[in-house]
Structures are given as structure tokens and as C-alpha cells.
Amino acid sequence: MSAGVRASVLAIARSFIGTPYRHQGSRRGVGCDCLGLIRGVWRELYGSEPEDPGPYTPDWAESSGEDRLMAAALRHLRPVAVTEVQPGDVLLFRWSAAAVSKHCGIVDEGQRLIHAYEGSAVVSSTLASAWMRRISSAFAFPE
If 36 and its partner were Cys, which of 26, 51, 77, 119 is the partner (CB 3.0–4.6 Å)? Predict the structure, then answer.
């Protein structure tokens, strides 16, 4: 991803910090969940979303057994080696090796992650080892 796109991703993602957590939301200042953060950044970068995720329940990943988050990321984002992640890249997380990806966020500078924290808001938190162990994949926004 170019430095310009990366800087735009970070600026937009940071502007969501403090947005209340709202399941299926994707609006800065109004409410969003982790996928909604990525959707909101995408809309500001490209004008419209590449697809409608449709309704999903909080337990959608567990009930279907299908890694829909990973599949959507592969359709629209560019895969990046986890060892080469940079600020502005998207990380997907799974809670165990056998589970599907259930959470996502955008890498911030200083080993931080911008993500929607359930029950709270969009935050920038330390990308600690507990998070690092749960990374399932990494992606960059397209040019």
C-alpha cells in the first residue's frame, strides 16, 4: 500500500476513536463494531462499500462455522505476511487455532490496534502478546 493510502487509512481510523460500540454499525461518532470500523474506513477511502455484509448476529462466526470475515477480506483486501504488517494494515483475529476469524482492527503506530471494543467504543489499545497470538491473517487496503 502506498504511503498516501496508508496515511489516509490511519487518519480515518483514528477519527473513529471514541465512537460508541454498536453491533452492525459503521458510522463514525454514531456507532460501529469491528467490521463497521473497516467498512467506515473503506467508504471514506473509496466512496462506497464493495458489498453489503447483510445482517449478522453477535455469534455469527460460531453458529455458521464458516470464516466469512476471512472470505470477505480475501475478496476485497490484499493479503500481507503477518511478519510484514505495517500501520494502516488490517488484522483478523481468531480466539483459538480451530476457530474462525471473529474480530478485526487496524494497526496503529507504536504497536497499537484501533478496533471497536464490545461494550465500550472504538479504541487504540496496545497490540500485546495476547492479541499477537490470536492473529489469523493480515491485509492491506488496495491502492
Answer: 26
pLDDT at 27 over 60: yes
Tell me the helices (H) and strands (E) count for the chain, helix number first: 5, 8
CATH number, position 78: 3.90.1720.10
Note the pTM of the prediction, 2 decimals. 0.93
Query: d(Cα 26, Cα 100) in Å, to the nearest integer?
Result: 22
Please count the CA atoms within 13 angstroms of the CA of 90 that sit on its side-chain side: 30
| Closest residue by Cα to residue 89 from 61, 51, 115 | 115
Concatenating the DSSP letter of every residue in 9-56 gives HHHHHHHTTTPBB-TT-EETTTEE-HHHHHHHHHHHHHSS-SS-----
pLDDT tens digits along 70-79: 999 999 999 9
Grid coordinates representing 132 are 499477537
How much of the chain is in helix, strand and coil states, percent to nearest 5?
35, 25, 40
